[in-house]
Amino acid sequence: MKSVLYTMMLAAFLNPFASSSLTMSFPDMMREFGASTNDMAWVVEAFLLCCTVAVIPAGKLADMYGKRKLFYIGSIVFTVISVCMCFVNSVEMLMFYRALQGIALGIVYTTSMSILTLSVPVERRGYAFGMIGGMVYLGLSLGPALGGLLNYYYGWRSIFVFTALLGVVANGMAFRSLQQEWVHAPDSNLSFSSLILYAFSISAIMIGITEWVRFWWSAYAVVVGIAALSVLGYKEWNSKDPLIPVRIFASNLGFTMSSIAAMMNFSATFGVGFVLSLFLQMIMGFDSRMTGLTLCIQTGIMVFLAPRMGALSDRYNPSRFARWGMVLIGIGLLSMAYGTFTESLSIIMSSLAIVGIGVSSFAPPNNNLIMSSVPKTYISFASSTISTVRLLGQTMSMALIGVILAYTIEGMSTLQMMEYNSTVALIAFGVICLVGAIPAGMGGSSKHTVDC
């Protein structure tokens, strides 16, 4: 079990690190390629979009051909693409390779969660998800810091050298530790029409949400995406071999409520670092180093507490941890909003600690609830669902920030509007979490419904 856990922990680190490590390098990339800020935004968007689109089909293919096989494919492709990205000579090529990276890591994330669930005993599953959660937060916090250092000393291409080396290590660990194939639906088929409809609907929704402030057609894109998703839902409901087993959402309340809570959690927490980064530097006059150290309060607590909270959810009712975790996050975010309103660093720092405790209390138990609430045949889909709601939540979080930061009041200066909008954004995030505590508490009981 330990060797599998360590392999999946490294896999869990790869995705957030790969997605966040380039942020400090964008100015250098823009100068080298003559690119715009919108080009850089699409470098990020291409990664997130393709990762989101890939996870559901990857789960289906893993059931058909084997989770180990799909994990190898995703991990090897990621490593090869990371090497190729060292030699890109245009922003268009960078976008293309980042899209391929997103597909590869979508496959890795989906299969790794499934393999972990099937490899770890039920009574140790919360602890395992806590360790995975700790690695995700470590990747998110180390990404900008380590990426910035590599870019400063060796250039932005060194980031891809580093990620390629991580991929090589992950492949080596996987070949040594993964002994089973885990094929659960060898006679199943992947519907091409369902795949196209799913990719179209998710792409339309994510692009529409991302470009909500910039383009008039974004609202129509979201509406068209939702309509297409509804058509897909009807098609899959009546299918004997669906790409998305939508009936599980109607028949399994615990799975549905926990998934909704996860999306609300990511919608509320993903953009906090972005808001505080702007506030601390533009309003309170911090430099980037001090801002980064301040934000590490939350991530440091999460790295330390997540495994411990996951282990506790193995012994006690995980739905209670998930509910009170969301409540704590909501309280911390509302307190943080008061800290930005009064420009109190001590309140902001203590609020970050509260949010860190809350996220640690929510995420591992809630993932435990999602993965443990379905039978073995749906493990891959449950894993894909966690990744999908995470990425959709992140997209919605940044879209909400874009809408709020675009708001202006006549007579207010740019800095005054930044301070006002930062407070409003944090209040909105806090309310989302407090509302999200309702489905989080409906996620299930201490009894796991599946023994894998």
Characteristic key phrases:
452 residues; mainly alpha; Growth Hormone, Chain: A; globular; disordered C terminus
- Give the CATH level 1 class of the largest domain: Mainly Alpha
Low-confidence stretches: 446-452
Quaternary structure of the protein = single chain
What structural class results from the helix and strand content?
Answer: mainly alpha
> Helix share of residues?
over 70%
Give a count of the beta strands, DSSP E runs of length 2 or more. 0
Report on the biggest sheet: none
Strand content: under 5%
End-to-end CA span = 13 Å
CATH topology of the largest domain: Growth Hormone, Chain: A
Q: Using the alpha-carbon principal axes, give the shape.
A: globular
Please, what is the CATH homologous superfamily of the largest domain? MFS general substrate transporter like domains
Tell me the Rg in angstroms.
Answer: 21 Å
Number of domains: 3
**Average pLDDT value?**
87
Series of H and E elements: HHHHHHHHHHHHHHHHH
Task: Tell me which CATH architecture of the largest domain applies here.
Answer: Up-down Bundle
Helix tally?
17
